[in-house]
């Protein structure tokens, strides 16, 4: 068993086209780093200085990790993590 | 014949985007266009989590619900739409900056003029290209979709 991670379409070019990848249990930021070792470039797109980027949402099962423990949230075997880039826009820059 | 870069919508779907945008005034509204290839099957309104006349931010939990529904039905994100209430149907600098999805068409509906104006764009790494919107008179809103 491992942690299942769902990769959004824009990042699948970094995961050899895979929509679902697996990683080890531990903290979320550690999971991101482990995945980056296998799929270089992934961590940079998801996180910045060990924090999840502002326009990237990370869900653990059905919870936004911002409402859990952020990048330090513990992830267990069998959990499903979804990486979801925000969809946003506007006039004010 | 529509080409691969066009986005194909039915009249009803366009009507429902316009109705959604009008119902959200004075704020912008947003949503996902689910379908296959470049053909839209479902218009999915998503709550604007940061309601404002000059911006939108899709509610993440509704966005995730839509992604799961699409996965179940075997549909893709063919387009992403949002409305402009005071400006033309052209992507703003921030729209371009925050466009992380190179695949789907960015569809913008402007309510700023005398008539609603609908345009579609491909936005990839800061490059904006307009895409044609093709109206399919035979396309029913849920054609080809098996409800799960
Ligand atoms: Zn906009």
Structure description:
The complex is a heterodimer of chains A (93) and B (148). With 93 residues, chain A is α+β, with helices and mostly antiparallel strands. Chain A has one domain: Beta-grasp domain (Ubiquitin-like (UB roll)). Helices cover 17% and strands 34% of the residues of chain A. Chain A has helices at 28-38, 42-46, and strands at residues 3-6, 20-23, 26-27, 47-48, 51-52, 56-60, 63-64, 74-75, 80-85, 88-90. The termini of chain A are far apart. The mean pLDDT of chain A is 93. Chain B is an alpha/beta fold and 148 residues long. Chain B is built from 3 helices and 9 strands, in the order βαβββαβαββββ. In chain B, strand 7 (117-124) and strand 8 (127-131) form a beta hairpin. The N and C termini of chain B lie far apart (31 Å). Mean pLDDT of chain B is 90; it is low at 143-148. Zinc ion binds at residues 82, 84, 92, 95, 108 of chain B.
> Would you identify the CATH H-level superfamily of chain B?
Cytidine Deaminase, domain 2
Residue windows where pLDDT falls under 50 for at least 5 positions of chain B: 143-148
> How many strand units of chain A?
10
Radius of gyration of chain A: 13 Å
- Can you tell me the number of structural domains of chain A? 1
Helix content of chain B: 10-25%
Which descriptors apply to this entry?
heterodimer, A: 93 residues, alpha+beta, Ubiquitin-like (UB roll), five-stranded mixed sheet, two-stranded antiparallel ribbon, 2 helices, 17% helix, B: 148 residues, alpha/beta, Cytidine Deaminase, domain 2, six-stranded mixed sheet, two-stranded parallel ribbon, 3 helices, 22% helix, globular, disordered C terminus, binds zinc ion
Give a short overview:
Chain A is an alpha+beta fold and 93 residues long. Chain A has two helices and ten strands; from the N terminus they run E-E-E-H-H-E-E-E-E-E-E-E.
Q: Helix and strand layout, with pairings?
A:
The complex is a heterodimer of chains A (93) and B (148).
Chain A: E1 3-6, E2 20-23, E3 26-27, H1 28-38, H2 42-46, E4 47-48, E5 51-52, E6 56-60, E7 63-64, E8 74-75, E9 80-85, E10 88-90
Parallel strand pairs in A: 1-9
Antiparallel strand pairs in A: 1-2, 3-8, 4-5, 6-7, 6-9
Chain B: E1 7-9, H1 11-24, E2 30-36, E3 39-46, E4 55-57, H2 60-73, E5 76-84, H3 93-97, E6 105-110, E7 117-124, E8 127-131, E9 133-135
Parallel strand pairs in B: 1-9, 5-6
Antiparallel strand pairs in B: 2-3, 2-5, 6-7, 7-8
Bound molecules: zinc ion (ZN).
Zinc ion binds next to strand 5 of chain B.
């Amino acid at each position: 068993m491992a942690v299942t991670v769902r990769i959004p379409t824009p990042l699948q070019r970094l995961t050899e086209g895979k929509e679902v990848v697996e990683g080890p249990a531990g903290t979320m930021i550690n999971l991101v780093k482990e995945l980056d070792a296998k799929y270089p470039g992934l961590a940079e797109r998801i996180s910045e200085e060990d924090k999840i980027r502002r326009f990237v949402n990370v869900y653990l099962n059905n919870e936004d990790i911002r409402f859990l423990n952020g990048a330090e949230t513990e992830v267990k075997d069998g959990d499903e993590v979804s990486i979801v880039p925000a969809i946003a826009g506007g006039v004010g820059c | 014949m529509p080409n691969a870069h066009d986005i194909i919508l039915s009249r009803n779907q366009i009507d429902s985007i316009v109705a959604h945008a009008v119902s959200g005034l004075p704020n912008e509204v947003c949503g996902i266009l689910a379908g296959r290839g470049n053909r839209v099957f479902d218009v999915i309104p998503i709550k604007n989590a940061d309601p404002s006349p000059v911006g939108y931010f899709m509610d993440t939990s509704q966005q995730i619900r839509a992604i799961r529904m699409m996965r179940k039905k075997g549909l893709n994100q063919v387009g992403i739409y949002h409305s402009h209430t005071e400006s033309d149907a052209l992507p703003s600098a921030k729209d371009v900056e925050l466009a992380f999805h190179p695949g789907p068409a960015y569809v913008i509906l402007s309510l700023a003029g005398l008539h609603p104006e609908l345009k579609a764009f491909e936005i990839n790494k800061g490059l904006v290209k307009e895409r044609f919107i093709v109206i399919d008179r035979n396309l029913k809103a849920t054609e080809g979709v098996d409800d799960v």
